[in-house]
């Protein structure tokens, strides 16, 4: 049994959701946006001001009387984000604006019972470190490299941890008394972008990350695209090389997946086979100097990523694709090949164009995404997708 998430009513959540999506708004603007009477809005806003969840900001001058804009307070709630993407596991404590107030690292353990005990200890340590910022702690989010059940409590499979059907969400909720949500790492990242990032409120966009592996997630019509079995948009295992044309075996059991060509591990393996340095920064620097082998390896990886990005754009028609990758790859043969290949294979239409952005991939990105996951359910409610 998960604890009750909060005492916010559906009406309160409507106000919070609207301000989170649209930014600060006046009572009159909220009434128009939500199709509710001004009296109803005033009552709901009064409750949220009394609970210190909203605050009144500057005056808005327009037609008629000036009005006061309402914003969500940063200290209205705090959240814990846990990334099990890599060892060590990273735990962050953030506020409702996504600002990080404390950080703890603990060993990432594979045995589920030991992992849960160690995470519960890590949470105690984090709360201590955060001090006052840990007041109003309202939820925990966990991001992991695997598939997660539709109720967002159970890790269905995670190869990196060797987990099958581990209900880590409920176990941690029982230990901490806090609602706990589990999500695939890429999904957590995109929910963070939707809530706090520059694409806040965008209804249709995709995110891809290029790390040791490759991950991908999509917001479609304002909601996370999950697919029937929770694996929608799993670009990493999209086939990009045909059997007999240099297709390499993938950890999923197939051959020629994108991850076997374009992930950092694949690039490093290719460099090793060619007798080149396997470190991505060194390899990129050598390619920049015109060394043929490093150039060829990074060009092939970037081109494959570009092809996959073009396929993604053709299928989902997003307004933006955010590609998160190591900063050394942005302005490199990898980045250039990615953009060129994507550009070449997108069906061009007059006046519309999907924007591809490169974003630096930071070590904290997944834990930040996990905290956003808890913030997402605090604002939009446990029924939100
Ligand atoms: Zn694969």
Summarize the structure in words.
This is Transcriptional regulator. Belongs to the ROK (NagC/XylR) family. It comes from Acetobacter oeni. Pfam families: HTH_24, ROK. α2 packs across α3 (38-50), α6 packs across α13 (365-380) and α8 (264-273) packs antiparallel against α10 (292-316). The chain folds into three domains: 10-72, Arc Repressor Mutant, subunit A (Orthogonal Bundle), CATH 1.10.10; 78-193 and 365-380, 2-Layer Sandwich (Nucleotidyltransferase, domain 5), CATH 3.30.420.40; 212-360, 2-Layer Sandwich (Nucleotidyltransferase, domain 5), CATH 3.30.420.40. The mean pLDDT is 91. It is of the alpha/beta class and 385 residues long. The chain contains 13 helices and 16 strands. The chain starts with 9 loop residues before the first helix and ends in a 5-residue tail after the last helix.
């Amino acid at each position: 049994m998960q604890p009750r998430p909060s005492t916010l009513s559906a009406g309160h959540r409507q106000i919070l959701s609207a301000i989170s999506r649209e930014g600060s708004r006046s009572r009159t603007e909220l009434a128009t946006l939500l199709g509710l009477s001004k009296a109803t809005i005033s009552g709901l806003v009064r409750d949220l001001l009394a609970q210190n969840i909203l605050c009144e900001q500057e005056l808005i001058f327009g037609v008629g009387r000036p009005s006061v804009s309402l914003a969500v307070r940063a200290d209205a709630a705090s959240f814990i984000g846990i990334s099990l993407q890599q060892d060590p596991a990273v735990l962050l404590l953030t506020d409702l604006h996504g600002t990080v107030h404390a950080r703890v690292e603990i060993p990432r353990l594979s045995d589920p019972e030991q992992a849960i005990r160690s995470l519960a200890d890590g949470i105690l340590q984090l709360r201590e470190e955060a001090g006052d910022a840990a007041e109003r702690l309202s939820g925990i989010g966990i991001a992991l490299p695997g598939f997660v059940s539709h109720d967002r409590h159970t890790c269905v499979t995670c190869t990196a941890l060797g987990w099958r059907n581990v209900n880590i969400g409920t176990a941690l909720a029982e230990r901490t008394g806090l609602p706990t949500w589990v999500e695939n790492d890429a999904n957590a990242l995109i929910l963070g972008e939707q809530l706090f990032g520059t694409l806040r409120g965008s209804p249709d966009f995709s995110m891809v990350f290029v790390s040791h592996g490759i991950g991908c997630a999509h917001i479609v019509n304002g909601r996370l695209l999950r697919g029937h079995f929770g694996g929608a948009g799993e670009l990493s295992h999209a086939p990009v090389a045909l059997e007999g044309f240099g297709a390499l075996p993938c950890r999923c059991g197939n051959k020629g997946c994108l991850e076997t060509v374009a992930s950092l591990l694949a690039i490093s393996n290719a460099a090793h086979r060619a007798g080149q340095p396997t470190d991505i920064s060194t390899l990129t620097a050598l390619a920049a100097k015109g060394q043929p082998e490093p150039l060829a390896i990074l060009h092939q990886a970037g081109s494959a990523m570009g092809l996959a990005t073009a396929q993604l754009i053709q299928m989902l028609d997003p307004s933006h694709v955010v590609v998160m990758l190591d900063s050394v790859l942005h302005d490199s043969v990898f980045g250039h090949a990615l953009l060129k290949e994507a550009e070449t294979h997108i069906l061009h239409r007059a006046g519309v164009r999907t924007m591809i952005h490169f974003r630096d991939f930071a070590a904290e990105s997944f834990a930040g995404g996990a905290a956003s996951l808890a913030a997402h359910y605090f604002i939009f409610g446990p029924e939100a997708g």
